[in-house]
Amino acid sequence: MSGANGSSTWRNWAGNITARPTREVSPASAAELADAVRRAAEDGLTVKAVGTGHSFTAAAATDGVLIRPDLLTGIRELDRAAMTVTVEAGTPLKRLNAALAREGLSLTNMGDIMEQTVAGATSTGTHGTGRDSASIAAQIKGLELVTADGSLLTCSEKENPEVFAAARIGLGALGVVTAITFAVEPVFLLTAREEPMAFDKVTADFDELFTENEHFEFYWFPHTGNCNTKRNNRSAGPAAPPGRLSGWIEDEFMSNGLFQVVCSLGRAVPATIPSIAKVSSRALSARTYTDIPYKVFTSPRRVRFVEMEYALPREAVIGALREVKALVERSPLRVSFPVEVRTAPADDIALSTASGRETAYIAVHMYKGTPYQAYFTAVERIMTAHAGRPHWGKVHTRDAAYFAEVYPRFAEFTALRDRLDPERRFGNAYLRRILGD
């Protein structure tokens, strides 16, 4: 059993959350993990598993036992008859995507980065955009978790279905996930069409753009009337990836290198942001390329930021976005990061942001180290007026009383938590705030 005592500090990706656990453990199997949970109980310590720290909330922070997932990785089983893949919880999405592609398989949909572990991404409700599919958790067919008493629970629609219904997005509150079974399909090609479009046109045509495309999203550049739209649709091929140079210019130089410089300048001299935004939002050119899904859905994100994202009923999103635009225009705020709009179909997971309703998302970002409270607070006020549901892994100020109002099945989740973890072995300050005690 590899266990490290001593309190080294844990930090998340954005650097806005730190924690000092009493000890860290890197179990190499579900049995070792269960043993670590039992030992923590004997010592009266709480337990939290971390992923890659891509959440902006303190969801994984603990002063008890920190479970590191580094050794719980790899594909456990590939079932071509059932078209499922079972992976260890600590497997990074990029490793899963590459391994599936080698086998001629793919997930149906995914978010826009793939650094996260499969358990971290699904437990917080990570999603991409899609008319018919969006969240990664909605593609889960089965999962295995270690509960507070150290037992290993296997869940699916047939086995422990009430746990399965909730644990796909479990926030780390019901137990530590040790393995996940995803539905997969034969690998396919997506044609991506990226195109600048005026804010007024995108917002006027939003319903049409959503209906006509399998995956539609757009970014609005604050202080401008400019947007960039992205449409991803299945394609018969042939594959035509972006050229090396043009791909590097778009994905590395403009999205990471130049953007880093622009953000640093904006942080130092906020007054420059509106004029930079006008130039940079016009510098985008249209491009079309075709590739396998993970190469189209995901892109590297090296510029560090802090993010808040709210899920709204889809019919409310354009009105809310117009309110955000009006807010930025009438305030002294200077925002260098684009505002992102994506969609998801309704699903049946208790605490999914798309639970029981057709959904659209508005995400706002601020460059790391820039004061974000004024902007996020003002945007959050707009979102909560529309019964918005914040992403569990992104900055928000909501609590259990609010969630009981916006999630019809909130009480079902908390009752299950009371049953599985009555002593709050997996509790922390964040869970106390969002789930109550």
Helix content: 25-40%
Strand content: 15-25%
Output the number of helix runs: 14
Shape: globular
Low-confidence stretches: none
The strand line-up of the biggest sheet is 17-14-16-15-19-20-18-21
Class by alpha and beta content: alpha+beta
Largest β sheet strand count, sense and barrel closure: 8 strands, antiparallel
**DSSP strand tally:** 21
Kindly summarize this structure in a few lines.
With 437 residues, the protein is α+β, with helices and mostly antiparallel strands.
Explain what this protein looks like in three dimensions.
The structure is a single chain. This protein is α+β, with helices and mostly antiparallel strands and 437 residues long. The protein is built from 14 helices and 21 strands. It has helices spanning 30-42, 93-102, 118-123, 161-167, 199-204, 206-212, 244-268, 273-283, 293-297, 317-330, 373-385, 400-406, 410-420, 429-435, and strands at residues 3-5, 10-11, 18-19, 23-25, 47-49, 65-67, 75-79, 84-88, 105-106, 140-146, 152-156, 176-183, 185-186, 189-198, 215-220, 226-235, 287-291, 305-313, 339-344, 359-367, 389-390. An eight-stranded antiparallel beta sheet has the order 17-14-16-15-19-20-18-21, sandwiched between helices. It has a five-stranded antiparallel beta sheet with strand order 7-8-12-10-11. Helix 10 (317-330) packs antiparallel against helix 11. The two termini are 32 Å apart.
